[in-house]
Amino acid sequence: MKTLPLDLKRELSLVTWAIKKPRFVEEVNLLLQSNLRDRSVACVEAGERVLKGQKIADPVDAYSVAKHASVSGQVKAVATTTHPVFGPVACIKIVSDQNIETLPEYGCERNGLQHLTRRQCLSIFQEMGLTEHDLHAEPLHVKLSTGFPKSETLFINACEPEPYVTSGYSLMMSHPLEVLKGAEILRNISDAKKIRFFLDQNQLDAAEFLKSKIYFLNWKHVEVEVLEAKYPQGLDDLLPLEGYGQTHDAKKPLFKAATAFAVHEALVLQKPQTERVVTIGGECIVESQNVWAPMGVSFAEAIKFCRGLLREPRKVLMDGPMRGIAQKDLNASVYAGTQAILALPKEEVPLVEAEDCIRCGQCIESCPVDISPVMITLAAEKQLFDIARDAGAEQCIECGNCSFVCPSKRPMLELIRYADSQLQWQSLTPKPPLPRPRRKFRTLALKK
């Protein structure tokens, strides 16, 4: 069976840019931690009825965030579920009553918004459970409170360089004003003077839509830049920020478009982080589209929002086919870092047995940040993490190019993530440690 070209793969999830709202959710398993350091403790008990938006878990320290019910219903238990990235974690199980009853203030404009101080805003972000909408889900109040090197510009990365993934595009087409106003809040908190949006050429209509809203708002300090649609051009570490006073190593005032939207919802409309837009796509999905997925809903139930599966998938991934993480357990729960759920058939994901490295050097040539994937992966297999660090494991941007070009089909990205997680664990930073990949590994080998 012939493989679809990448532009058509993108269209699979864009039958319409409208975002579907699921009518019924049976049960959610709300994670009590999004990453290694974000921990919270339940403040509800089994049998208690909760409303959508109600706080169900308190943060245990200054790094953590509160958790909120994404549906109304009855608390079933405080138990264990599967985190899509690093396995079993504690969760709160809530059985939905299908009524979607919310707190009285949920969705109502906050009083005295214009008088809030920076410290009060950060406190609200923590109480509303806001995290960055990327894989590592760093608590937003922590990212903002640690400060950035002096910069006049705040950046919003709205690029989606991977095939299939269109959740950010649909969000900007459906809610451009909310994204813009959320970015403005982030700019004020960050003490930046300007905002710059990055989009790619596959999102030209969204770019023009944003520009029209900026024109009518008469915001002279907001600009939109369209980048070439070339993978991995749209990844955070490869954006052209140096021209705005940013260095490669500096911490960047850079956020996702979905994060800006969540900021507006939390600060202005008093909506905690209870849902996010997720692309449900791939050739095995009956009706690929973008969905408002409640936090804690299982991947299996999220797929049912799109009328289920046409056939059994060879691989289910969280996020895109280049950087995505294969999911063995479809009971894994949606969290802030879940951008997409892809169900791919055997034609797209042939099973290839990993072989020994042949020292061809193709991974080094394809690396956009000039590190040595071959040295990192060989060191990771031998548990020599100091050597992996010296070879650049912590500088990897996880683009997946090395896995894609490797003629031996070695699990390059898996091994680099493993090495990096072990180094992060040793230094006690937020990234969770990952399990060691098996030596004989069946890899994702996308056809060109």
Average per-residue pLDDT, rounded, comes to 88
Strand % is 15-25%
Instruction: Compute the number of strand runs.
Output: 18
What class, by secondary structure content? alpha+beta
How far apart lie the N and C ends?
Answer: 13 Å
CATH architecture of one domain: 3-Layer(aba) Sandwich
* Name of the level-1 CATH class of one domain: Alpha Beta
CATH superfamily of one domain: NADH-ubiquinone oxidoreductase 51kDa subunit
Radius of gyration, CA atoms, in whole angstroms: 21 Å
Largest β-sheet summary = 5 strands, mixed
Shape: globular
The level of helicity is: 25-40%
CATH third-level topology of one domain: Rossmann fold
Give a verbal description of the structure.
This protein has 448 residues and is α+β, with helices and mostly antiparallel strands. It has helices at residues 6-11, 118-127, 140-145, 167-174, 176-190, 204-217, 257-269, 299-304, 362-366, 373-381, 385-390, 401-405, 412-427; strands spanning 27-31, 40-42, 49-50, 55-59, 67-68, 73-83, 87-96, 153-157, 194-200, 222-227, 254-256, 275-281, 289-294, 315-318, 325-326, 340-344, 352-353, 442-443. Among the domains are: 113-269, Rossmann fold, CATH 3.40.50; 352-443, no CATH class. The protein has 13 helices and 18 strands. The strands form 5 sheets. Strands 13-12-16-14-15 form a 5-stranded mixed beta sheet. The model is unreliable at 1-6 and 438-448 (pLDDT under 50).
